[in-house]
Write a structure and sequence with these properties.
Number of domains: 2
CATH architecture of the largest domain: 3-Layer(aba) Sandwich
Number of strands: 15
Strand order of the largest sheet: 2-8-7-6-5-3-4
Distance between the termini: 29 Å
Helix content: 25-40%
Number of helices: 10
CATH class of the largest domain: Alpha Beta
Radius of gyration: 21 Å
Oligomer: single chain
CATH topology of the largest domain: Aspartate Aminotransferase, domain 2
Length: 409
């Protein structure tokens, strides 16, 4: 995914306690790339600070400095578990969402399939962390099963039932898609997997804090979270591992994190993740309503002002903060560059690999990829204001009109 450099809001209407993002150049810059990363919340930074200073102990040490660090780590584990309806011993801290997804998919395959054959199954629109782990399992002998989606990104449950007949080591279906925001029927997927006796992994990185995510309500066996999507720093995530689910670690050499993720834990980041998760879960319902109204307003104004614009995934239930639009007659890189120059941070639905532009695998799976249109993700967050949405709705059509005029010459 191509992302423009970070920009922030300098609007006075930002939520109380927000200390802002340096707008670098423009004082009217608008950050609409919260799905890529979010600013660290002041409450999170404050909670972490002691563990970056005087409370620096190694949680594996037995002296008082170590015991203090261990107590903070286990308190963070308890608080994070409570935020998703889990038990403390079911939380494994990781370096982020990518590691959590890999530990879930590849760790499960190696525990029950490696050397014995079998399959791993995942939707065709999973994050590349899940798809990459599935590819790695295939290189080790697994059958890789990709589950189809419809034109709005919804999982084909018939394809799931067919895959379950192969008794895969794990089925991975993301709670919400990171590019278009489509919500999957995870409760139904979890129920079907449980009935078939197959372990189910949900990547909830783009769902948690936006919609209700609780493993005591939706019986996932594995679930991935990432800190920097919810106001914690980059470099911290977690994997929920339901008691009794067997995984193989990806790295070896220590007993930390139940020996599933050896290495000295980053206490400060774990504390930050727990605080961010508590805040996100507490604010989710009200914030979800607010962001859905802003997203819908932005989409309505852009649809009215830009001929041919299509909102990808609009026919499905979506997380409230994500809008992915396709705009015909516009070259994607030119649009992203122009948006950045106009002070709007956004992401594109393509990735640059080896000097060539490839369409988004998500839009390809949905049948929505086209070489003659730009696909842009506009993602909102806690710091997004009404004024920013109105300003973006005015600027973006003008930018598109200019690019179309230039490309028509």
């Amino acid at each position: 995914m191509v992302s423009s450099p970070g920009r922030g809001s300098a609007h006075a209407a930002a939520p109380a306690g927000y200390d802002g993002i340096d707008p670098e150049v423009r004082m009217d810059a608008i950050y609409l790339d919260h799905a890529a990363t979010t600013p660290v919340r002041p409450e999170v930074r404050a909670a972490m600070e002691p563990y970056l200073g005087p409370r620096f102990g190694n949680p594996s040490s037995t002296h008082r400095w170590g015991r203090e660090a261990r107590a903070a780590l286990e308190d963070a584990r308890e608080r994070l578990a409570a935020a998703i309806g889990a038990r403390r011993g079911e939380i494994v801290f990781t370096s982020g969402g990518t590691e959590a997804d890999n530990l879930a998919v590849l760790g499960r395959w190696r525990a029950v399939g490696l050397g014995r054959g079998g399959a791993v199954a995942c939707s065709a629109i999973e994050h590349k962390a899940v798809l990459g782990a599935a590819h790695a399992a295939a290189a080790e002998g697994a059958e890789e099963i990709l589950l189809a989606v419809d034109g709005d990104g919804r999982l084909d449950l018939g394809a799931l039932d067919e895959a379950l007949r192969a008794r895969p080591a794990v089925v991975a279906v993301m709670w919400a898609n990171n590019e278009v925001g489509t919500l999957q029927p995870v409760a139904e997927v979890a129920a079907r997997c449980r009935e078939a006796g197959v372990v189910f992994h949900a990547d909830a990185i783009h769902a948690f804090g936006k919609v209700r995510v609780r493993v005591d309500e939706v019986p996932c066996d594995l679930l991935a979270l990432s800190g920097h999507k919810i106001g914690a720093p980059k470099g911290i995530g977690a994997l929920y591992v339901r008691s009794g689910v067997e995984l193989q670690p990806l790295v070896h050499g220590g007993s930390q994190e139940r020996a599933l993720r050896p290495g000295t834990e980053n206490v400060a980041l774990a504390v930050g993740l727990a605080v961010a998760a508590e805040l996100a879960a507490r604010e989710q319902e009200d914030e979800g309503r607010r962001l859905a109204l802003l997203r819908d307003r932005l989409e309505a104004r852009l649809s009215a002002a830009i001929p041919g614009l299509v909102v990808n995934g609009a026919g499905a239930a979506r997380v409230p903060q994500t809008s992915n639009v396709s705009i015909p007659g516009v070259e994607q890189d030119a649009l992203l560059m122009a948006l950045d120059l106009e002070g709007i941070a956004a992401s594109g639905g393509s990735a640059c690999q080896s000097g060539t532009i490839e369409p988004s695998h998500v839009l390809v799976a949905m049948g929505r990829a086209s070489a003659d249109e730009a696909a842009v993700r506009l993602s909102l967050g806690r710091t997004t204001t009404d004024g920013e949405i109105d300003a973006a709705a005015e600027r973006i059509p003008r930018i598109v009109e200019r690019i179309r005029a230039l490309e028509a010459r």
